[in-house]
Amino acid sequence: MSERSISPLDKAIVNKICAGQVVVTLASAIKELLENSIDAEATKIDIRLKDYGCESIEVVDNGLGIEEAQFERINLASVTTFGFRGEALFSLCQLAELIIHTCSADATYGTRLQFDANGCIAAKRPLARSRGTTVIVNRLFHNLPVRRKYLAEPAQMIKEFSKAVNVLTAYCLVAVNKQITCTRVGKSGEKVLVVSNGASTSLQDNIAAVFGQSQLNCLIPLLQVTTVRSDVLAEFGIKDPILDENIELHGYISKPPGVEANVSIRPPGSRVSPKTDNAGHGRSSADRQFVFVNGRPCDMPKINRMVTDLWRRCSRETISLSSSGLRMPVQSTSSRYPVFVLCFQVPTDIVDVNLTPDKRTLLLQNQNQVLALTKAVLLQTLFRSNGVDLLSLTNKSFETDVSAIEIVDLPIDLPSPAVQKKRPFVFEPSVQASKKVPTENCLLQNNYSLVIPSSTEEPRLVPIPSLAFEKSGYTENIDEFDNRDADGVGSAENPLELRPSVPLEFSFTKLKQSLSSVSTDLSTVCSTSSTSAFSLGNFRAEDSNAAEGELTTYFNKSSFHELEVVGQFNLGFIIGLHNQDLFIIDQHASDEKYRFEQLCADHRFVCQPLVVPRALDLSVGQEQLLLSNLDVFAKSGFAFHVDESAPCGRQVQLTATPMVGNKVFGRADVEEMLFVLAESCSRNCRPTRLRDILASRACRSAVMIGTALDHGKMRRIIRNMGTMEHPWNCPHGRPTMRHLFHLGRLGIEN
C-alpha cells in the first residue's frame, strides 16, 4: 500500500470519536443516565454529584433492573443509533470509568459490573441491593485532557454544573408521578439538596416543589381555545380555520406585567404611580422558560421569542386601553422575561427528534399550526386574566396608535363637560431635522400648553414656562407645532420679505480647468502617501472603534514604557513618540481611567444592614456563582446570610446593601453582578450604578484640562497607562489616545 493511499481508522479511534460526539458535556452525561432510568419505568430517581459532578456521577433508580442474560448487551458497540441506551453507556465507557449495580425483579441478589474502555465486562461480583439499577460514572473525560482540564477549572465547573441543573430542572417539571432528586456531595462528604420535585402528581405540584409556592402564585394556567382568530391564522399563512385537533397545549405562564391600578382613563392632574408589580411576575433573565414536546424537553427559540414578546406587550394597562377602543403597542412595554412551562402533545409521526445527539432540536411537520395555536392560547389567557373578552377585540390589531395616548400631567382648564375637540391637531413638518421626543411630553418640552377657551373655538397652543416632566415609553417624530384657525389655514401675521436678486458671473470653462488641476494635485498626494506614510505606519483607521482596535493590536503594555514624551499641547494633551509614530494622549481621560481602575480594584463601599433580610430568588447556578464570589460582592457593599439547610436556589438572603447618598440598591444590582461574573469572570465587576459613582469620583480627582504639567508628571501618566487593563477609553467612553502622524512621510529617519 502506498503512503498516499486512504486507510481506515482503527476501531478504537472510531469509537472514541463517536463517544465524544454523544457525550459532550457534564449535562449530556447526566441526561443520558436520567433518561435510562425513566425508560426503565422508575418512579424514584436519586442523582448524586460529587464535587459538582467532576469527580463522580451516581444515578440510583428503582426501575426494572437489568436481567443477567442482558449483561453482555448493555454496552453493545454495534448499537449506533443516537438515543439508544447501549450507545449512551458505551460512550461513557470510552470517556470515563463506568460501574453498574443492578438487580431485576426475578433475581435473588444484585450484581456489580465494572466495564473497560471497550465496553466489555472487566469484573463481576454479587452484591445486596433492592430492585433497580445504580450507574456510577467516575472521572468523566479523564482520557481527553483538554475537556478534562476545562471541566476541572473552578469557574467552568460552576458553569457546567449550572447547565446540568437546568437539564434536571426541566425533567423535574415534566415528570409526573416520578420523584427525581439531585444532591451535591461536597469534598468533606456533606450533602446539599440541589433540586427535587417531591412526590408530585401534577404539573402544578412540580412547579411548586421546584420553584416554590410563591412562584406558582405568580403563574396562571393556559386556557384552551376552540377557535383561532382569523388574523392569527393569516399571520402564519394558514387557510384552513380548523387546526389539527391532535395538537394540544397546556401549561402555565406568568401573570401579565402592569401597574397596580388597572384604569384606562385618568382624571386631570392625576399621576401614574411608578410602582409596578413586574418584579413579582417576571424575571430579569430567561432562566425559567421551558418547552416540552411529548414529555421531552426541547429547544424551540421561535416559540420562546413569540411568548416573551406577547407577554411583554400584553401588560395590564395596554389591555385596558384595548378594551376601551385603543390599540395595543407593536413593541414591548416591559424588559422582563416571563416564566412559562409549555407542554405540547403532538402525534409522533409529525415530529422528528433524532436531529442531534441530545434530541433537544426537533423538526415539526406542522410548525405553523403549532405557532398559531400557541399565539391563540396566549392571547386568550393573557386577556382573560385581566377580565377582558378577547372576542370583543377581534377587529383590533396589535399596532401602536400614539394619537390616542393620553397626555399626563398637563394642566387643562375645562369650562364645561360639553367642550369637545372638533378635529385633531395638525403637525406640519419643518425644513429642519425632526427630533425624537416622548409623545406625552412633546407639548411641554417645547414650552406649549393646551388651552380651550370656549366650546366654539378650536384648541390652540400657547407658550408656558419650562417644567420638569416624567419620561414616556412612546415616541414619535415631532417637528414643530403650527397653530391653525377653524379652517385649518395658518395666519400670516409675519409675511416673508422678498429680497432682490443679484446676478452672478459664472464661467463653466474656468470651473472645469480648476477642477482638473485640483484632481492632478490630489493624485500626486495620494500616490506619495500610499508609498511612504502608510507603508511605514501601521495606523490607518479614522473610525473610533477601528482606531481602538488598531491600538490594541499594535500596542501592548511595554509599548507605553517605550513611548517618549515630546511635550504638552494646549494644556490638555500629551504628545508622545514611539519609533517614528507620533501619538496624542488626553491627559484628563488617561489619568481618570487609571484612577477608575484603582478604585474598582481596591475601593470598598460602606454597607447598610437591612432590618429584614431580603430573600433572593436565584437559580442554582447563580446561587453557586454568588457563593464562590462573596468577597467580590463584599467590596461593593453587599452582605448575605447563607442557610445551608435550605434547598438550592433559596439558601441566600440579602442582609446588607451599599450606602451611597440617597440611592437604594437591591436584588436587581445583585443579578446584574452575577450576569457580569458569569460572562467575564472579572473580579473587579461592579453594578452599573456603583460603577458610575466610581467613575464620577475618578473624574473629579484626575488631572484636569488646562493644567500645566512638567515632564515628570507627563511621564507618570503615560507609565500608568501601561498598568491598566483597558487603557483605550475613559469610564465615560472618551478615547485616551490616538495616532497623529508617521514621521516617515517627512523623510525623517530615527
Automatic annotation (TrEMBL):
<dbReference type="InterPro" id="IPR013507">
    <property type="entry name" value="DNA_mismatch_S5_2-like"/>
</dbReference>
<dbReference type="Pfam" id="PF08676">
    <property type="entry name" value="MutL_C"/>
</dbReference>
<dbReference type="InterPro" id="IPR036890">
    <property type="entry name" value="HATPase_C_sf"/>
</dbReference>
<dbReference type="InterPro" id="IPR020568">
    <property type="entry name" value="Ribosomal_Su5_D2-typ_SF"/>
</dbReference>
<feature type="domain" description="DNA mismatch repair protein S5">
    <location>
        <begin position="207"/>
        <end position="383"/>
    </location>
</feature>
<comment type="similarity">
    <text>Belongs to the DNA mismatch repair MutL/HexB family.</text>
</comment>
<feature type="domain" description="MutL C-terminal dimerisation">
    <location>
        <begin position="565"/>
        <end position="709"/>
    </location>
</feature>
<dbReference type="InterPro" id="IPR014721">
    <property type="entry name" value="Ribsml_uS5_D2-typ_fold_subgr"/>
</dbReference>
<dbReference type="Pfam" id="PF13589">
    <property type="entry name" value="HATPase_c_3"/>
</dbReference>
<protein>
    <recommendedName>
        <fullName>Mismatch repair endonuclease PMS2</fullName>
    </recommendedName>
</protein>
<dbReference type="InterPro" id="IPR042120">
    <property type="entry name" value="MutL_C_dimsub"/>
</dbReference>
<dbReference type="InterPro" id="IPR038973">
    <property type="entry name" value="MutL/Mlh/Pms-like"/>
</dbReference>
<dbReference type="GO" id="GO:0006974">
    <property type="term" value="P:DNA damage response"/>
</dbReference>
<dbReference type="Pfam" id="PF01119">
    <property type="entry name" value="DNA_mis_repair"/>
</dbReference>
<dbReference type="InterPro" id="IPR014762">
    <property type="entry name" value="DNA_mismatch_repair_CS"/>
</dbReference>
<dbReference type="InterPro" id="IPR037198">
    <property type="entry name" value="MutL_C_sf"/>
</dbReference>
<dbReference type="InterPro" id="IPR014790">
    <property type="entry name" value="MutL_C"/>
</dbReference>
<feature type="region of interest" description="Disordered">
    <location>
        <begin position="264"/>
        <end position="283"/>
    </location>
</feature>
<keyword id="KW-0227">DNA damage</keyword>
<dbReference type="InterPro" id="IPR042121">
    <property type="entry name" value="MutL_C_regsub"/>
</dbReference>
<dbReference type="InterPro" id="IPR002099">
    <property type="entry name" value="MutL/Mlh/PMS"/>
</dbReference>
